[in-house]
């Protein structure tokens, strides 16, 4: 045995390596079957961050398909309803730089909106009901429709199909309960104007550098 | 009696107390204001529901808004008068926002409902007392305004061993509780007894007072003499009056993060609340007034007053010689935790313990914040042992996860850190903003989870419906195949069929006579009604004439029908007659009767086996046929000069259009000879994907456009929509649709919008 190894050192090494490769290959293969993870966990996590408006502004039919696309390498800045917060969270999760929102897909709205049907003008055509991805519109054929405001995500998809143009997107008003404190103005803004000589201090430095 | 050990809390600060100036005068009162403003939400939890109408006359102590649920409290009229309005009015809140308020015009008579005093309140049951406290609308008078009855009803798994009455009042300037304890110590002690009873006589009942109020301590000790209630004084330090801090001082126990004091067996009530509970239980007095400190150098007189809830702050200040020129700002609450009032029309509410009108020297405007120098003084001052400076960093960068990890929600917003900060950073405001952000984030998260569930459920439902449709389609296909098979079998078993036909013919022949008679009767009746319809009516209006005409037509149809039936019947009768006699011809007739079925099956078969292309082609053919027919009709109509000409023409036009679209579809399909995707996929995704495509294209176009272009685009889109809407309206008019009005308003609206967009465009260019 030892002799053959010393006689054919290269062949012995090759055999040993092949043997090891087969062993670990088998191990890995077994592990892949035994510890298989159902579905793609990263898609779940991405989907958890997306705002679930299902508005399709990203170009995919719903938030989950977009989550799948992100997992497959699509850009993370295509979600206007989520805005910069969502992009930042996605960047955190995927460990990439956070880009700014891609304006091509729409602008981030300042205020959340909710669809409101002007009910005396509704003719009961059910077109908006079919368009709503959230099942948030109630009504039947030839009956007045109405929006369940709590379930409406403000995705806008019901406005276009309405034949009598009786759906408005109304910004949600903040009530006392939802009101929250704003962050104080950034401290450096205040600090820069603390004493008279602070005025224009930043500029002076910049000009100094330029000179 | 064993002496209670007093513990210390971490951190804390010693700001100037400024309590002497408001304690010079005894407790005062002011006249009833001409108008009271009663917010329906003066406490934490759900707003109360107004139960009075505008114009109602109310008496003092009458409920004007009822508690809505457990976490809510009644609102009572503080005096008699007339309800002037129920409107949105600015309320004392840092946001300066409005809320629903009941406006009461007082009549100055101060007439009250008859209160029901309980002489025997000691012997009443706990449930009775609790419901009386609830009815009286008592909410925490110390700070947050928590509905008191909820707090006094702890869960069974939280046995209470300590009741603490909070008379600390650690915040500078405020002396409302101090004066109450001095002047109404008996009420406080009696209230504490009631509370002890409600909580099943806890082991210890302690009234905690800071040692800077010796007179209050003396008064309380005297009042509590001979009872189990202990009055404990401890060193003055801000913020020892915080609920969690006071519990730590008096028991050495800390309330765990995110839990309530009851979880460690403690209930804490403010002295003001305790006294109010006694007044409510003993005398039936609802909570309609409170003691408020009115203090500050911008006032001529500084003192404590007992003031009706709802009294406008402006009225209170007027009574104390308010000089708004001297005042730097107006604060509700103390200088540490209070907030600046947006305007002075807001009312005094259940939680208003102080109105502070400092002059510019007393409370100068905050100095501009500078950079954090990491001195660590804030961490030393924090009574909750948090790391304010870390929290500050994370709040600035809005790192919500880190904020929660650093226990932001244990911050009691006491302001000690801001007070000691040498850089004057408004730390508490950062924490408040961050807390709001986190709460909002949680709400959003919850909502998005719900949205996801709804969306997924909808997807499932649609998929299920699709699958059901598909199953039905399959079933129909199977049925058609079976029918085909049967037909084939029948053909092989032709002799059988002939036999059958024979027997059938034999069976029907006896009835033939009867049937024929019946049909003849039918024909006669039809002809009769036709004659009747034809009968001229002399004084008929055009409308009636029209009706008559239609009736005639109907009758004619009936007659024709009856004739046809009769003819058919006689035919079959003769046929079966021959069948009965001649076997050979019978086989032919049997085949004949099979014929239509076979043809239908053939057609169905052809349809099933057709590819989409063939389908389109055949539909194209049929369309062509229809078009020919329609054109012929049009020509006929033209010849006759019929009034239906227009309608027929539009019909022909439409057909042409259809043909064009079908042709184009056919052209699309023609190059791809491969079978198209399954119908299910295309059906589900088509509508959605096309809409998305549209939206995507629109968004892309919008992004690159200037404002002007955008507007122009909008105008074009609106024009298109208007055109569509007008077409729809015209159609509706033609068809005499019931929704004409709706369409009309839609068109009008669109016109308006278009005009507006055009105007804007004109302005821009």
From TrEMBL, chain A:
[4Fe-4S] cluster 1 binds at residues 55, 58, 63, 79. Pfam families: Fer4_21, FeS. Residues 1-32 are annotated as: Hydrophobic. [4Fe-4S] cluster 3 binds at residues 132, 152, 155, 158. Signal peptide: none annotated. Its cofactor is [4Fe-4S] cluster. Residues 38-96 form the 4Fe-4S domain. It is found in: Cell inner membrane. Residues 113-142, 143-172 form the 4Fe-4S ferredoxin-type domain. InterPro entries: 4Fe-4S_dom, 4Fe4S_Fe-S-bd, 4Fe4S_Fe_S_CS, Elect_transpt_cplx_RnfB/RsxB, RnfB/RsxB_Proteobac, RnfB_subfamily. It comes from the Bacteria. The chain crosses the membrane at residues 12-33. [4Fe-4S] cluster 2 binds at residues 122, 125, 128, 162. Binds 3 [4Fe-4S] clusters. Its main location: membrane. Its EC number is 7.-.-.-. Keywords: 4Fe-4S, Cell inner membrane, Cell membrane, Electron transport, Iron, Iron-sulfur, Membrane, Metal-binding, Repeat, Translocase, Transmembrane, Transmembrane helix, Transport. Part of a membrane-bound complex that couples electron transfer with translocation of ions across the membrane. The complex is composed of six subunits: RnfA, RnfB, RnfC, RnfD, RnfE and RnfG. Belongs to the 4Fe4S bacterial-type ferredoxin family. RnfB subfamily. This is Ion-translocating oxidoreductase complex subunit B. It comes from Gilvimarinus gilvus. The lineage of its organism: Bacteria, Pseudomonadati, Pseudomonadota, Gammaproteobacteria, Cellvibrionales.
UniProtKB/TrEMBL annotation, chain B:
Residues 362-392, 402-431 form the 4Fe-4S ferredoxin-type domain. [4Fe-4S] cluster 1 binds at residues 372, 375, 378, 421. Residues 570-591 have a biased composition (Polar residues). The complex is composed of six subunits: RnfA, RnfB, RnfC, RnfD, RnfE and RnfG. This is Ion-translocating oxidoreductase complex subunit C. It holds the Pfam family Fer4_8. Its main location: membrane. It is an enzyme of class 7 (translocase). Its cofactor is [4Fe-4S] cluster. [4Fe-4S] cluster 2 binds at residues 382, 411, 414, 417. Residues 465-502, 528-552 have a biased composition (Basic and acidic residues). It is a peripheral membrane protein. Keywords: 4Fe-4S, Cell inner membrane, Cell membrane, Coiled coil, Electron transport, Iron, Iron-sulfur, Membrane, Metal-binding, Repeat, Translocase, Transport. Residues 465-552, 570-596, 627-646, 659-689 are annotated as: Disordered. Binds 2 [4Fe-4S] clusters per subunit. Residues 514-526 have a biased composition (Low complexity). NCBIfam families: PRK05035.1 (NF003454), rnfC (TIGR01945). Belongs to the 4Fe4S bacterial-type ferredoxin family. RnfC subfamily. It is found in: Cell inner membrane. Residues 708-760 form a coiled coil. The keyword ATP-binding does not apply. Its EC number is 7.-.-.-. Part of a membrane-bound complex that couples electron transfer with translocation of ions across the membrane.
């Amino acid at each position: 045995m030892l002799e053959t190894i010393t006689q054919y050192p290269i062949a012995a090494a090759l055999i040993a390596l092949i043997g090891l490769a087969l062993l670990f290959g088998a191990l890995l293969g077994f592990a892949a079957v035994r510890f298989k993870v159902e579905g793609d966990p990263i898609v779940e996590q991405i989907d958890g961050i997306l705002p679930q408006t299902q508005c399709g502004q990203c170009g995919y039919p719903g938030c989950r398909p977009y989550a799948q696309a992100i997992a497959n390498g699509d850009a993370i800045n295509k979600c206007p309803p989520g805005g910069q917060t969502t992009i930042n969270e996605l960047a955190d999760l995927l460990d990439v730089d956070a880009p700014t929102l891609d304006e091509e897909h729409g602008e981030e709205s300042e205020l959340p909106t909710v669809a409101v049907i002007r009910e005396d003008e509704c003719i009961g055509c059910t077109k908006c009901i079919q368009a709503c991805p959230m099942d948030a519109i109630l009504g039947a054929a030839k009956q007045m429709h109405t929006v369940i405001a709590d379930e409406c995500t403000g995705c806008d998809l019901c406005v276009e199909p309405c034949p009598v143009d009786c759906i408005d997107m109304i910004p949600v008003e903040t009530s006392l309960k939802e009101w929250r404190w704003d962050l104080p103005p950034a401290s450096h803004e205040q600090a820069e104007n603390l004493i008279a000589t602070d005025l224009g201090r930043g500029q002076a430095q910049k000009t100094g550098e330029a000179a | 009696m064993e002496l209670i050990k007093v513990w210390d809390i971490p951190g804390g600060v010693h700001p100037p107390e400024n309590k002497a100036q408001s304690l010079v005068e005894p407790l005062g009162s002011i006249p009833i204001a001409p108008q009271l403003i009663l917010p329906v939400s003066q406490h934490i939890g759900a707003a109360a529901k107004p139960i009075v109408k505008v114009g109602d006359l109310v008496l003092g102590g009458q409920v004007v808004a009822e508690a809505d649920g457990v976490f809510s409290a009644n609102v009572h009229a503080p005096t008699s008068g007339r309800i002037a309005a129920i409107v949105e009015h600015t309320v004392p809140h840092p946001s300066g926002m409005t809320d629903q308020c009941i406006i009461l015009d007082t009549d100055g008579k101060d007439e009250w409902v008859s209160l029901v005093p309980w002489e025997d309140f000691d012997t009443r049951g706990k449930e009775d007392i609790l419901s009386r406290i609830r009815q009286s609308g008592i909410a925490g008078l110390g700070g947050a305004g928590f509905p008191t009855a909820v707090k006094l009803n702890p869960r069974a798994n939280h046995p209470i061993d300590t009741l603490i009455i909070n008379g600390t009042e650690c915040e500078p300037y405020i002396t409302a509780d101090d004066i109450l304890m001095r002047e109404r110590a008996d009420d406080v002690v009696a209230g504490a007894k009631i509370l002890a009873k409600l909580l099943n006589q806890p082991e210890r009942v302690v009234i905690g007072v800071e040692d800077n109020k010796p007179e209050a301590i003396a008064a309380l000790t005297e009042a509590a003499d001979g009872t189990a209630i202990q009055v404990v004084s401890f060193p003055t330090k801000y913020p020892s009056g915080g609920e969690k801090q006071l519990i730590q001082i008096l028991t050495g126990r800390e309330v765990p993060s995110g839990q309530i004091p009851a979880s460690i067996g403690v209930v804490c009530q403010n002295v003001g609340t305790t006294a109010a509970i006694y007044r409510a239980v003993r005398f039936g007095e609802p909570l309609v007034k409170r003691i408020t400190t009115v203090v500050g150098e911008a006032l001529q007189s500084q003192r404590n007053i007992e003031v009706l809830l709802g009294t406008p702050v402006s009225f209170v200040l007027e009574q104390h010689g308010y000089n708004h020129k001297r005042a730097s700002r107006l604060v509700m609450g103390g200088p540490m935790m209070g907030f600046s009032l947006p305007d002075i029309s807001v009312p005094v509410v259940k939680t208003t313990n102080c109105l502070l009108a400092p002059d510019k020297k007393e409370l100068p405007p905050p100095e501009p914040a500078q950079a954090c120098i990491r001195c660590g003084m804030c961490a030393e001052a924090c009574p909750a042992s948090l790391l304010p400076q870390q929290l500050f960093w994370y709040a600035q960068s809005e790192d919500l996860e880190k904020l929660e990890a650093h226990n932001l929600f244990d911050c009691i917003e006491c302001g000690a850190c801001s007070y000691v900060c040498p850089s004057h950073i408004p730390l508490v405001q950062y924490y408040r903003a961050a807390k709001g952000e986190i709460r909002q984030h949680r709400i959003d998260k919850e909502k998005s989870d719900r949205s996801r569930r709804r969306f997924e459920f909808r997807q499932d439902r649609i998929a299920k419906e699709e699958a059901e449709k598909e199953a039905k389609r399959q079933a129909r296909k199977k049925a058609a195949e079976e029918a085909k098979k049967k037909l084939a079998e029948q053909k092989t078993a032709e002799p059988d069929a002939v036999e059958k036909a024979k027997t059938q013919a034999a069976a029907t022949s006896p009835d033939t006579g009867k049937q024929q008679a019946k049909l003849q009767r039918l024909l006669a009746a039809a002809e009769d009604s036709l004659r009747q319809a034809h009968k001229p009516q002399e004084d008929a209006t055009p409308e009636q004439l029209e009706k008559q005409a239609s009736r005639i037509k109907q009758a004619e149809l009936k007659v024709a029908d009856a004739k046809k039936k009769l003819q058919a019947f006689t035919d079959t009768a003769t046929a079966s007659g021959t069948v009965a006699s001649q076997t050979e011809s019978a086989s032919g007739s049997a085949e004949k009767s099979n014929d239509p079925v076979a043809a239908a099956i053939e057609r169905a078969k052809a349809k099933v086996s057709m590819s989409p292309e063939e389908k389109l082609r055949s539909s194209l053919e049929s369309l062509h046929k229809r078009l020919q027919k329609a054109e012929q009709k049009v020509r006929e109509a033209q010849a006759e000069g019929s009034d239906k000409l227009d309608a027929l023409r539009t019909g022909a036009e439409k057909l042409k259009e259809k043909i064009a679209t079908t042709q184009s579809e056919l052209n699309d399909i023609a190059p791809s000879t491969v079978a198209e995707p399954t119908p299910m996929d295309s059906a589900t995704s088509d509508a959605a994907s096309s809409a998305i495509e549209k939206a995507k294209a629109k968004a892309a176009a919008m992004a690159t456009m200037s404002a002007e272009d955008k507007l122009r685009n909008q105008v074009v889109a609106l024009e298109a929509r208007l055109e569509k809407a007008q077409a729809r309206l015209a159609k509706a008019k033609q068809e005499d649709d019931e929704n004409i009005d709706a369409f009309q308003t839609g068109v009008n609206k669109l016109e308006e919008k278009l005009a507006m967009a055009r105007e804007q465009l004109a302005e821009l260019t």
